[in-house]
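Hi team,

As requested, here is the filled-out complex form for the zinc ion run. I kept the field names the same as last time so the parser does not choke. Let me know if anything looks off before we queue the next batch.

— J.
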Amino acid sequence: MGVDDRRPFPADDVECELCQAARFTHWYAETDDGWIADCEVCSVPMVVWWHHGTQPGTEVRRELLTELERVADRRFGPGNWELDTTMRQVPTHFHAHARDRDWWRLRFARPLSRYTGVGGDRATTGDPPELGWSAGDRDDREQDRG
Ligand SMILES: [Zn+2]
Ligand SMILES: [Zn+2]
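And here is what came back:
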């Protein structure tokens, strides 16, 4: 299957999850600098640099974050999300999340999106489970963020 390895150039680090750039969730966009897809852990848009490393150049970083902003504004609406550039799960590879206010409360309730090609409508795996539980404690969010 060529679908999962259509990178513009070979992965810098084949062991790195973000270098692998597997296409499972919805991909919003793909540029010369990187790609934006739903984070499998958080179910929110995440921009990832094509290259392995923490320091894209200033220009590349700006373009990546601008692209993420465009995607997040479309998904959540302007002003309804915040940029999170802290790299927790893969601290060695530049990526950033766009988190809406409800991401933590709904992270398990939101059905995971699935890959249907780059761009287009965001398709999910099915209906979300019943929301019978309470919002939970936001204090522990720093520990589990993906
Ligand atoms: Zn990497
Ligand atoms: Zn995440």
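Two things worth flagging: The domain at 3-144 is CATH 3.30.428.10 (HIT family, subunit A). The radius of gyration is 15 Å.

Thanks,
J.
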